[in-house]
Amino acid sequence: MSLTPTRRSMPARVATSLMAVVGVLLVWHALTAGFGVISPARFPAPAEVLASLQQVGIDGYSNGRWHEHVLRSVLLVTMGFVFAASIGVALGLAMGASRTVEAFVNPIFLVLRPIPPLAWIPLAIVWLGLGDAAKMMVIFFAAFVPSVINSYTGVRQIDRPIFEAAAMLDARGLRHWREVLIPGALPSIFTGLRLSLQASWTTLVAAELVGAVAGLGTILNQASQDIYPAMILVGMLSVALCGWLMTLGLGWIERRVMPWRVA
Hints:
mainly alpha; 263 residues; MetI-like fold; single chain; 10 helices; globular
């Protein structure tokens, strides 16, 4: 008898996830519309949220329809995340590979690291106004820090015998980066990218609460002013859905880049 745990098949995992979602929806309906344990003024019933989604999807709300808000937010997150991740991963790898680069960059990074991303919003508005550039700047700082830290950690966690074996095989220069540093740091890099993506969405919504024409943050802002709980929940669930889908996309890239690690 084998004691090794068996991996669940994809259909079984999907079925379990669907059952969990259905269970949450049933409990939600029972507590709100079913038994009235929670007042609709405090937390809307599923039917109210669905009606609000239909409203924003067909008639529009807060200067746009649902797909327009989603596309604008996804575009801003994607641009800010890609820009920050590209620079952050490269800088983290360089700091991990070179003591000289670390000594030069680390003091500056240690000053920037404790600053909350939202603290950059006033300065971004002063420098870049209320347009998309200011929001991208705030997203950049939110996504930049986790990508740097995890890339740096990934290089420093590579086992010393691997470096010794690479030296014996005369792996130098670009070959050293391509065959040793980057593959060895990839697991930690993707951990940082997931954290960066989550931080990007959190920061975008906060940035869109100020001066945005459209976006999921504007739905939340307008709905809070209108005291419209169902629409607030539509905005929140939309952010969750977009973040989940982008995380799935990042996971797909991870499986293609590291097929040996991800089951």
